[in-house]
Specification:
By secondary structure, the chain is mainly beta. Helix content is 11%, strand content 33%. The longest helix is centred in the N-terminal third of the chain and has 8 residues. The structure holds a DNA duplex.
Amino acid sequence: MRKILRGEFFNRPTLKVARELLGKFLVRKQGRKMVALMITDVEAYIGHRDRASHASRGKTARNALMFGQAGYWYIYFTYGMHWMLNIVTEGNGYPAAILIRGVQNISGPARITKFLKIDKKLNGKSALRVSGLWIEDRGVKVASRMIKKGKRVGVDYAGEWKNRPWRFFINSLV
DNA sequence: ACGATGATGAAC
DNA sequence: TTCATCATCGTA
């Protein structure tokens, strides 16, 4: 079993999508080279009131993708050197996205994009077809007892929103 | 604990 | 146009 996730998968409540992204495969293709890595850690950014989200200060040129259709990549540059990879969720007009924070053998959102050579060239591209970057279900089931949740990382500025348990990750397998 | 390093958004 | 901030990471 090996299928690309479709628009209907992403156009749903973000927390549900986030949980279900664990165990799916992020697939990167550049020419003949193809790499697939299982997603192990994600964070949800939901709605216009979530102060940790770029969308909390309204629609801008940078964050406009978050307000758009589900299933598109939202990739932005931060700290002067890092690219962050997000997939847009929920319906058109409602700002939400999921940060891909970890994949197998790679922890940290900036390390993923560095390893897979992901930058602004993929920003706004569709994740729903075979192109440069998409997500596949390869039949891996992650038992719910293996899924942990916690606070999002690096959002201490977000007031009460910093405490929302909107990070989901697979308990370290050993 | 802190510096790297530059785009972004808000203030002026 | 200027300025503080930032969904981080490597080094210490």
